[in-house]
Structure formats: C-alpha cells, structure tokens
Specification:
Layout (H helix, E strand, L loop, with lengths): L38 E5 L7 H14 L4 E7 L3 E8 L2 H6 L1
Length: 95
C-alpha cells in the first residue's frame, strides 16, 4: 500500500513518479508528456460573487480532464475571470 501526505489534489498530476522515501529517484520516469493546449478562451463570471464558484467548478473539471488547464485573468472591462486551455475546438465544445 501507499501512504501519501497529499493535502491538495493540485499537488499531484498525471505522470508523477512515486519512489521510495529512502531512495528517491533522481528524475521522473520517461514516457509521459503533458498535453499541450492549442485553443484558449477567456471565461468571466456574471457577477463578482460567482468568481469563487467558477474557480471551484474549474478545479473539479481539472480532476476529470488532465488536458484542461486554467489560470486567473484580469480584464479592465470584464473584471476577474479565467483563461482556459483546450486541446482543440472540439474539446472546448465538449467541455
């Protein structure tokens, strides 16, 4: 069995290498390549109070889809929102 002291799911990503504490690996095992987003879109909540709800929804979506990414974005006209990355247009439509 494995005991991991993981406090946040954001601390762990697909492709992480698990090693022995006494003999840690010098570098991760080869073979996994992080997906590269090709299409980006900005999303802004309807009201500023919905910002935290939108962030929570994106956090949950990231758990289901490792190829989806998001980062905070600020626009003078629209306020606070998120820039989301997708693999392509179809991926963006599905999500």
């Amino acid at each position: 069995y494995v005991i991991a002291n993981i406090r946040e799911l954001a601390d762990v990503t697909i492709g992480d290498t698990i090693t022995d504490y006494a003999e840690p690996a010098a570098k991760p095992l080869p073979g996994y390549k992080k997906p590269m987003q090709m299409v980006f879109s900005d999303f802004y909540p309807g009201t500023n109070t919905d910002y935290s709800k939108l962030r929570e929804a994106f956090d949950k979506l990231t758990l289901n889809d490792a190829s989806f990414s998001f980062s905070p974005q600020n626009s003078p006209a629209l306020g606070f929102g998120f820039r989301c990355g997708f693999l392509g247009l179809l991926h963006m439509e599905i999500i």
